[in-house]
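Deviations from the work plan: none for this task. Representative record:
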Amino acid sequence: MDIIIYGIINSISLALMALGFALVYGISRLPNFAHGALYVVAGFITWTLLKAAGLNYLLSIILAMAITGLIGGLLYQFILIRVRGMAISEIIASYAMGLAVLEGLRWGGFKGMTYTLPVFAQGSIMIWGVPVDYHRIIVVGIGAAVVLFLWIFTRSTRVGLALRGMAQDERASLMLGIDSDVMAVVAMVLGSALAALAAILLLPLGNIVVEAGYNVLILAIAVCIVGGLGSWFGAVLAAFLIGFAQILTVAYVGSHFQMVVAILAIIITLILKPSGLFGKQKELEERV
Amino acid sequence: MARARELMAIVVAISLLALFCVMPKQARAEKPIVLGCPLSTAFLYGWDAERGIKLAVEEINAAGGVNVGGVKRPFKVEVMDTRDLEPGVPVSEALLVVEKLILEKGADFLLGGPVRSEAALAAMPLLSKYKKISIVSTGVLSPKYSAMVAKNYDKYKYCFRIHGEAKWLVGEILACFKELKQEYGLNKILVMVQDVAHARGAGKVISKVAAKKGFDVLGMEVFPTGTSDFSMGLLKAKRGGAQILNIWMDMPESSILLKQWYQMRIKALPFGSTLAAAEQPGFWKATEGKGEYTLCNVVNAGNAPSEATPWTMKFYRAYTKRWGVEPEGLGSSSSYMTVYVLKDAIERAGTLDSDAVVKALEQTDMMGVYGRIRFNPKSHQVIPALDPEKGAVGSVIQWQAGKRIVVYPKSIATGEIKLPPWMLK
Amino acid sequence: MEQKRKERLDRGIKVRSDTIYALMSVKEIAYLVLPRLVLICGLLIAPLVMPSMYWQRVISIVCIYCLLAISFDFLAHFVGLVSLGGAFFIGVGSYLAAILNTYWGLSPVLTIPLATIFGALICTILLLPCLPLRGVYFAIVTLMYPLALARIIEALDIFGGTDGIMGVTSFPGRWVELYFMVGMVLIFLFGMRRLVNEDIGLVFRAVKDNDQAVRASGMNVTFFKAIGVCIASAMGCLGGACLVHIYMWAGISQFALDFSILPIAATVIGGAGTLVGPVIGCIILVPISELLRTFGTLRIVFYSLILVAFIVFRSEGLMVYGQRKYHQFERWVRV
């Protein structure tokens, strides 16, 4: 029973971390390796607004999400747009910017383990004999709501449909008058805001450190690959797969092998079915 | 053409920058004694050493400097970031920094680091090659360090360690366990370690010895660095009825563990070592008080307030005044002492020659911040004890009502171990 | 309105020194030989003119990164496989050399060649299942391999676990170490440049351009990719073996990401597709990185910003730019 509950919590956490990355890749085929940096930056911005400027928590959250979205958009507009289409250059450029941001934070004094965000609700309750704290329940709730929101957004609103169109076939959507550059910026802003949301939900459980950026990046990539680059539903499903695999490993094999599981999942997926569970790339495009 | 010009401008700028960095080195005077400090300055176990060393150097220089055979010379600190505590950085970076300090900055002695045990072990052959004395004072808890000095004395005699190492820490922790058993009847232990060499080694040793002494060791859970979810481990503790959680983790995610422990009201006392998150004074605010009752071994007295020797609180207050925060981390007091011990050894040897200073260091016998400082002549490890008059004293603290209270050893304790309210029911 | 366009023409001397006509006079031969001569002499003289022993150590490190960078460039631009796993090759090579040295007591003269050959074989076998993958998938697998291998060694606690293997013998002397490394870099650099113009080099380039066509010609694409990976990993393993003997120690941190990223940065800055570019990139990047060490963490920030600037504004790299300027001249002409 505790496996199911904590499996769900772990999976939704992974899904939140990966959604931003999956969104940006799915729409503009841009692997945003600055995802981890945006996650951490959002955490520090919230902390600064909350503690240093003394604003209301909810206001800080909304502002932090907006600012991070803006940073992502600017990052795309001024740097990544110039290397669009060249896969290696995109990876290197976004990774280098992420690295610059993370190390810049470290140099700017954000080091040590004393930066934390307060949880949304204190206390815990027992669900079926398993103690679960309120904040984690809120995480699951908001996570599920975000997935649902994205699903509705991409099916009913104009912008959402345009994003989906671009993800499906860029040329066709260009012909229909959807400006791919504008859509790419929108995707990037949304992806960064999602990263910020994930940070705000998950960081109160621990503390804000720069190293978390690198870990989040690896986990997000793992989830997106297993689920299939370009498929949001696949990313969510893969999050559940990896999340439960990790929890089961800890419960039955030993906590030692948690991270190995994630990395092995990537390697096995790439060897057996490179485009992941729900990837949209054809067989011929992925292997010889 | 404009493009070529901007490229030229960049090249010129870079070469000017390069010249700027290379030139001043030649013009350095010979007078100061250069202390090279290869530290991971972006991490707690790096900057605690940096601050301790700088404080000591400032005090010594203000008092006139070091008497080297009749000439008073000041100390000069050269700190270089090794980044060796960062996960993705190879140890060869730390080794490069050590070499740069020795070969370029002309370091006469190396203090403080490298901080990671792996890097420190790898640096030992380098130090013997260049015949430079190194006194590590933070991080490096692996017993292998002093074991290697003892095994191959002639090669590694330049390496000293002035803070407690893992084996001694295990002993201190077990003594606390015994007290907990006597006072509160706590008997079941779950060991939770981070997947790094010193933590795993120490965890294994504690499991074995505790089991021999009659404790019920439920097991050892190893968590890879970067784990962000400890729910299953904590649930295992709860199911098994663990009463003490022995935590060996210096990764920041340990605060996730502690917060979850509090939320879940697990009926076990968290007892940590190298629990970096809990060693900082800011821990209380950072966890909004949820870190209360956490026990933590801070390795040497002076890192938390106590009256081990008259010097302890003098150091504590000087540090707080200088840096605006109380001593944090496990390397503050030991790094501070390192400089004084070195000064004492140089003055007795009357020269900076490495072999002479090695002999002088082996004969060190001074009352320091955390007790009597003496080195084991074979392994160059500082001699530990439970009584500050006899040797270097450690400290185990517990967070109570926002303060770090020293609860062990009894000779310097300022308070008693308390249990969280939900455990007393 | 008058419109102008930029025209690029080969320089006269380039045309005159094409193929066999190069032998016409000393000037043509000099035109061809000069850049290469400068590079070779520069690399050979560098260890002698360095101001201190520290900088000589930097040269050795530069050479190791050069080997990695050449292998990356070769794989990425001549075989079409983007490999983000330089760390993987270094790690395998270094562990093999350390094991051969400490467990079987072989001297560096034997461990280095053995580690290179067996390392290449092991890397190729491990990468074999991933070879049919294309594009970004291969890149991600090679990125994950060093991480996975590091975790496995850590988890199973073999080969010294997190402590690593210590007490590896070092090179017989400083100059041996330096000139061996410089020699290896030069041999592999010019060897690779020759290789890509041989028959097998043509097949590699065909695989990169259009692997379906190669398949249609009846050649096994995976086989040729394997050979390419074997050569590249041999270079990486050589670098790893040398690293172990320089620092007398091997450990998990040799799977660090730094070894994967710097060759890529060097290739980008130096000029992709020309095997010389990565070497130049390393020669620039590593010493600058050392010089900036006084700035602490800010060094990495500078480093990343320089990298981004190069990628975005001059992504062809220095060498390609340089070659163009050397071989061609530009002028504005009226349309």
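Chain A touches chain B at residues 2-3, 6, 9-10, 13, 106-107, 111-116, 118-119, 123-124, 130-131, 133, 135, 202, 205-207, 209-212, 214-215, 246-247, 250-251, 254-260 (CB under 8 Å).
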